[in-house]
Design a protein that fits this description.
The complex is a heterodimer of chains A (about 160) and B (about 80). By secondary structure, chain A is mainly beta. Chain A contains one helix and ten strands. The termini of chain A are far apart. Chain B folds into two domains: about 1-40, no CATH class; about 45-75. Chain B has a three-stranded antiparallel beta sheet, with no helix packed on it. Chain B starts with 10 loop residues before the first strand and ends with a helix. Classes of the chains: A mainly beta (about 160), B alpha+beta (about 80). Chains A and B meet through strand 6, strand 7 and strand 8 of A and helix 1 and helix 2 of B.
């Protein structure tokens, strides 16, 4: 089993641990201060709100966004700065206000990767729908950019 | 589907929190003003569907997929 992505921002003393079933990692133990709440949920999955971030230990910057309420619902995500150093979505200040992010240290922006089955070389990143998190409150939300410069199918690896 | 007829400047409410106003009608185009709480997602249909479709495709990623992309990533 992998370690949960540690969150140094957390000051909560509520350390209740409970098991969660996942398809990829089997049964995992989740501390209540590791749970991320997406409100509203991801488009297409708006009834699921509780997720955890799980690191992928292979010297690669990929993370898992694993749903806690549906064991086979998991997304591979990445910090978009690994893909585009200048990724700066216009509505980010508004997103920070809505999520009450007080300091940029508490801000985490992730984009979801789509990996076509059997064709990992063709994976794409959805730069149009970043998931923005407030690490302090662990509240997050997928923001949709109405900006043609950011594709929902941004090619990650060269063809 | 509920069908209503409205004129420019008129509007409608969806529940207590969402207000839609017809701002302008010009030929085949209509400008709508939408006031809704920030938790409500308001998007053009084609954009909503594009992101929803992408999320559906990205969901259910498997461990082996990530192992493969991690390998490719290290090779780059």
């Amino acid at each position: 089993m992998r370690d949960m992505a540690t969150n140094p921002q957390t000051t909560s003393t509520d350390m209740t641990v409970f098991p969660a079933k996942t398809r990829n990692f089997g049964s995992i133990e989740v501390r209540s201060d590791q749970i991320i709440y997406l409100e509203p949920g991801l488009l297409g999955f708006t009834k699921y709100h509780r997720y955890v971030l799980i690191e992928h230990h292979q010297e690669a910057p990929f993370l898992w966004l694993q749903c806690l309420d549906k064991e086979d619902l998991a997304f591979v995500v990445i910090d978009p700065r690994y893909l585009l150093s200048e990724y700066q979505p216009g509505p980010l200040p508004q997103a920070m206000r809505e999520l009450e992010v007080e300091s940029t240290e508490d801000l985490k922006v992730l984009v979801i990767l789509t990996i076509p089955r059997g064709k990992p070389q063709e994976m794409t990143a959805n730069l149009m729908g970043p998931v923005v998190l407030n690490l302090k409150t662990r509240q997050g939300r997928q923001f949709i950019l109405d900006d043609p410069s950011y594709s929902h199918k941004h090619r990650v690896l060269p063809g | 589907m509920l069908i209503l007829t409205r004129k420019t400047g008129e509007g409608l409410f969806i529940g207590d929190d969402i207000r839609v106003t017809i701002l302008e009608i010009r030929g085949k185009q209509i400008r709508l003003g939408i006031e809704a709480p920030t938790a409500i997602v308001v998007l053009r249909e084609e954009i909503y569907r594009r992101v929803q479709q992408e999320n559906l495709q990205a969901a259910g990623a498997r461990d082996i997929d990530v192992t493969e992309v991690a390998q490719l990533w290290r090779q780059e």
